Amino acid sequence: MSLVVVGLNHRTAAVDLLEQITVAQSALPKALDDLISRPHLAEVVLLSTCNRTEIYARTTRFHDGIDDVRHFLAEHSGLDVDELGDQLYTFHDDAAVAHLFAVASGLDSMIIGEGQILGQVRTAWLSAEETGAAGSLVSRVFRQAIEVGKRARTETAIARHAVSVSSAAVQVAGERLGSLEGRRVLLIGAGEVSEGMAVALSGAGVAEIVVANRSQARGRELAQRFGGTSVALDQVLDALVTCDVLLTSTDAPGTLIERAGMEEVIQRRDGRALLVVDVAVPRDVDPGVGQVFGVTLLDIDDLKAIGEQSLETRRGEVGGVRIIIDEELERFRVETLAREVAPTISALRDRAEEIRTAEIARAQSRLCALDPEAAALVDQITNRVVNKLLHEPTMRLKNASGTDQGDLYSDALVALFALDEDFTSSPE
């Protein structure tokens, strides 16, 4: 069985493709059920964010398992499986583990070192566990990936003063307008990204934050924390008439603002320009809005320049994070190999115990003359002899696991003690 990851991210795909293939949080349970029902996928975790959609899976057959994932993504996105296949990257075994460690550390993010991805990795894993899609292998990999992400952020400065997608969206808006000070900003959404935007906006000196959200109570709570106001989603177009900037990031399955609605807004603004920054994937704003005179529309692709700037400021920390990833990958290998020899060790001890107990049973007619204390002593002595005989080969096999010598030891034990065969004690 192999561990694989199949997916695409901001480096390999434009936002058009990313939004076609993304899986909303609300659709995650159904998607996981679909994936785990496929014939060659034994365990699955699905990680889908604004920057990536990746499926981590333990496959029962390598190539067939990858085909199962590709067909799922094609069906989900409505794309041709062969056309989509050319856009996807695939890693397996050690490379798949190393990739996840890099993702959790923030090295594979558009904004290097950003912290939101670690929470997203954890959420993806927990969602898979809740639906029964995550088994022992992928859970072990994701648990260690979270540890790697924490180590990277505590032992290096990769996340120090890190720019997030939220702050990058506010930064690019400020750069386009010269400053956000005194501006009125409409924020659609009240999730983690939107909350980060509100924090950044507050620090940028905006005059007012207006929050619109599907759950009005949650939108009102976010707005009140920053001294702003809230509106219902069906009041967004009216609110835009008096706003300077629109920032949006929701997990809505379709667009919230269409071109026709924005054209009406612009007509009511008396010629004042409007800046729209949409970092949702799939997009909240119809791309056609960017063609409306007086509207500047930016999306997730427009944040990549800030991501490059972020990389420059943290380039010296990347090496330190890579060292952590290498160390943790080696630890994962060692622990995995130890698990692989464990069945051989267990089978060897079971075989020895079976022989010991069978011999005691054969001698039972002669041992019955012994008093209970003497009979117990015979059992203890034979048990100690077995343990002492097996101790050295067991330790040598554990210490050599993962090496050619270890493979030779394991194969020799299996062959010499017939551990791959049913054992029947020979007659006395």
UniProtKB/TrEMBL annotation:
Q: Which SUPFAM superfamilies does the entry mention?
A: Glutamyl tRNA-reductase catalytic, N-terminal domain, Glutamyl tRNA-reductase dimerization domain, NAD(P)-binding Rossmann-fold domains
UniProt-listed Enzyme Commission number(s): 1.2.1.70
Q: Which Pfam families match?
A: GlutR_dimer, GlutR_N, Shikimate_DH
**Domain Tetrapyrrole biosynthesis glutamyl-tRNA reductase dimerisation per the UniProt entry, residue ranges:** 323-419
Q: Respond yes or no to whether keyword Coiled coil is given for this record.
A: no
Entry keyword set: NADP, Oxidoreductase, Porphyrin biosynthesis
Q: Which GO terms describe its biological process?
A: protoporphyrinogen IX biosynthetic process from glutamate
What's the name of the protein?
glutamyl-tRNA reductase
